[in-house]
Amino acid sequence: MSDPSNPNIENRSTPQWGLMQRELFWAPNEEKHTPLNTPNTVQTDPDKLKQLAEERLSKGGWLYSSCNAGQSWTHYANRLAFYRHQVIPRQLVDTSRRDTATTIFGHRVAAPIGFAPIGINRIYHPTGELSPAKVARELNLPYCLSSAGSCSIEDTARANGENDGQGVRFFQLYWSPDEKVSTSMLQRAARSGYSACILTTDTWQLGWRHDDAAAGNYAFYREHGAGDLALQDPAFRERLREAGIDPAKDPKRAGAEWIDKHIWHGHSHTWAEIPGLIKQWKDISGGKPFIIKGIQSVADARKAVEVGVDGIVVSNHAGRQVDGAIASLDALEKIVDAVGDKTYIMYDSGIRGASDVFKALALGAKFVFIGRLWVWGLSAAGEEGVRHVMKALLAEFDIMMNVAGYPDLEDINRDALESLPKGTYFPGTPSLT
């Protein structure tokens, strides 16, 4: 919609995101440019955004944000799967009253799009997690804080709107084998208004990432150490004292103590332990939702339902953990068929634009999480970069609902797609990044 005075705008519960396109078109008349839209760096294209992030990040920061497991086959599979499913546009549909708003675990949010949990954001920008948390609040999108984050649970909550009812935030848990530390993190999250716990189950240990390994690129062993999230945790500080480590004098040892023993520790957990963790979180939080992230098999999806989770995130960690694994989008189809009426299904991995969001929703996800896009925005221009990238994605999705003829999110289902056979490849040699 290009007319900013169109009366149908008032019928929406969310802003007319698509008007951002008009603003960008008009901006040169007033010699205005966003941080990512200058004469030399025109950025809404994800490939160009990625290139800009590489130019502005340190070598270590770039490697950590871009590395995939092994030869990147799972990452490629994710992108190929999105190509395999193609949208069927509809014509002469009244899209004037379209609305992107939806509900997730009782929270009314602006779109079925959230900020995926990504660790150690200070390697991308000095403001770390505070910038995406603030932007998420402004846009009324859910924000997920990683327990491998740089900024504290409490500071990130304040940036997201602590106790004012405006920010929707979830806490992603890397499950420490040290019960005292994991309990402390959950207690802090509950006190700070995080309204769900998301347990990531595919990363007890990092997958093998060639470039990171070759360069010895591991920020937790270097300048960033344990970060405020860890150093403000009373249980972890007690463990540091017991180990005789002063984080002020030896931040590298403190960082190793945190990451090696409490985050990516290599100790496996099992399904038998999940009911106890669910109960612990429910008791601590007053019954707030518990979610498992990393589900790729139908058997695991059924098991998750059996143990009583409130939702699952179908994800292969964007191809960063298991090389040569199935595309997460292909997993989504089967999982929705198996348990789609039994739990709240979310999706992440490989999303680069509005059509990818559309396709994941059409295949049965109720909600999607975005990762690398907002990280690249943060890397390129801090808070303004995150804001620009996420507003552009919302605008693109809003416009897509309009031009494709799908005014309601409920209309976006499998009938909206033509799906090519598995094994279909991109024509030519386009970027798969």
From TrEMBL:
Signal peptide: none annotated. InterPro entries: Aldolase_TIM, Alpha-hydoxy_acid_DH_FMN, FMN-dep_DH, FMN_HAD. It comes from the Eukaryota. Residues 38-422 form the FMN hydroxy acid dehydrogenase domain. Its cofactor is FMN. The keyword Oxidoreductase applies. Keywords: Oxidoreductase. Belongs to the FMN-dependent alpha-hydroxy acid dehydrogenase family. This is FMN hydroxy acid dehydrogenase domain-containing protein.
